[in-house]
Amino acid sequence: MAERTEFRIRTATVADAQSIVDAFDSTLPYLASIGSEGQWGLVPFSERPGFLDDMAKSLEQARVWQETHEGDSNIIFAAEVVGPASTEATVPAGFAQIHEDKFSEYLYKQANIQAVDLTKLSNFVFLEVLLVHFGTGYHKGAGTALVQHVKRYGLEKGKDAVYVDCWSGNNRQLVGYYERQGFVTVEDFAFPRENKTPWIGTLLRMDLTKA
Ligand SMILES: CC(C)(COP(=O)(O)OP(=O)(O)OC[C@H]1O[C@@H](n2cnc3c(N)ncnc32)[C@H](O)[C@@H]1OP(=O)(O)O)[C@@H](O)C(=O)NCCC(=O)NCCS
Question: Per the CATH hierarchy, to which homologous superfamily does domain 8-207 belong?
Answer without folding.
Answer: Gcn5-related N-acetyltransferase (GNAT) (3.40.630.30)
